[in-house]
Amino acid sequence: MPWKLFEESVFNYLIENIASEDLKFEYLGNRDSTKGDIAVIYRNNKIFNIECKENKSQSSQFVLELDREKEIFFFSKKNKSISSKANKIICHMNNNFNYYSKLKKSNYLNNKLLCKKELLYEFVIDNLISKGSKFIATAENLEELNSKKNIIFFSTNQLENYFNVFATFRTKQSGSRNPNKENLTSFPYETIEIEKSKKKCYFIYDKNSKIPDRIGENFFLAKADPSSGLRKVRIRGKTKNHNVIFSLYLKKSFKNTSDDYYIKKLILHEIHKHI
Hints:
This protein is an alpha+beta fold. Helix content is 23%, strand content 35%. The chain starts with a helix and ends with a helix.
């Protein structure tokens, strides 16, 4: 999980170079996109969060429903964010319904958003700030995660100075899950049933990973466990959502001024706005 290694490297940097008796950091990193990655704690009070973004990453997606009869898109109840924040983008898409509702050959949606860039930046910035992420930490070279000179740190409001933002409206299938015996009737390999945490899981023995990671349209195999040689079998989820997905790409045309003094100064300045 490269994203997790990156988050951990930023957290370790903050602990080793920025933390003090009054200023602490708590690693929140997980797959929950509605929360920040690192909490900033001042004198035992959580003040705000820091968002960690790789130099190529995704952010702030939301789900839309579409009514082909009425030719409109509308904000889905599946979202955890506030609908009003997406209204400008949805309005643009409704004005161009034929383009955004057009299916590809795979019968999926996959259409690049053509609205003004300012709408994309506005939504992503607002979304990050709404979950308490006042700052973003990134890096130019992900192969040098432990290098202090590699860290780029800036206020979330300055996103446009550091990242290019693009967005796509596409069909996204839900993640994988553990299959049951009935699901495995079409699985072409012999499986081993193991109960873990009161749940039945299925594995195949493939120590040298000779079997492809993807089998047919529905099955996936995890990496082989080095000690047992077992690979866990997963099945594709059935839920399909239509998502607006934002992609961030780090720009190259800026001067990185992020050193220890600068980062600590930024954080303390923001803290004093809240106390």
